[in-house]
Amino acid sequence: MNTAARPSACPACSAAPAAEDLAARAPQKNARIALSLPTIHCAGCITTVEKGLSAHPGVHSARVNLTLKRASVEADPDVTAEDLTGVLDRLGYEAHELDAGTLSATETDRAGRDLMMRLAVAGFASMNVMLLSIAVWSGAEGVTRDLFHWVSAAIALPAIAFSAQPFFRNAWAALSAGRLNMDVPISLAILLAVVTSLWETSLSGEHAYFDAAIALTFFLLAGRFLDHRTRAVARSAAEELAALEVPRALRVRDDGGTEQVAIAELAAGDLVLVRPGGRMPVDGEIVEGASELDRSLLTGETLPVRAQPGMAVSAGEVNLTGPLTVRATAVGEESSLHRMAELVAVAESGRSRYTSLADKAAKLYAPGVHILAALSFAGWLLWSGDLRISLNIAAAVLIITCPCALGLAVPAVTTAASGRLFRKGLLIKNATALERLAQVDTVVLDKTGTLTAGTPVLTNLDAHEGQDLGLALALAEGSAHPLSRALAEAARAAGVKPAPGIEALAEVPGHGTEARWQGRRVRLGRADWVGAETGVTTAAWLSIEGRDPVAFTFTDRLREGAEAAVDALRADGMRILLFSGDSAAPVRDLADRLGIAEWAAGMRPEDKAARVEALSAEGARVLMIGDGLNDTAALAAAHASISPASALDAARVASDIVLLGGNLEPVADAIAVARSATKRIHENFSLATIYNVIAVPIAVIGWATPLVAALAMSASSITVSLNALRLRGRS
Amino acid sequence: MNILAYLIPISVFLGAVGLAFFVYTVRSRQYDDPEGDARRILSDEYDDHPKP
Question: Catalytic: which of A183, A270, A446, A631?
Answer without folding.
Answer: A446
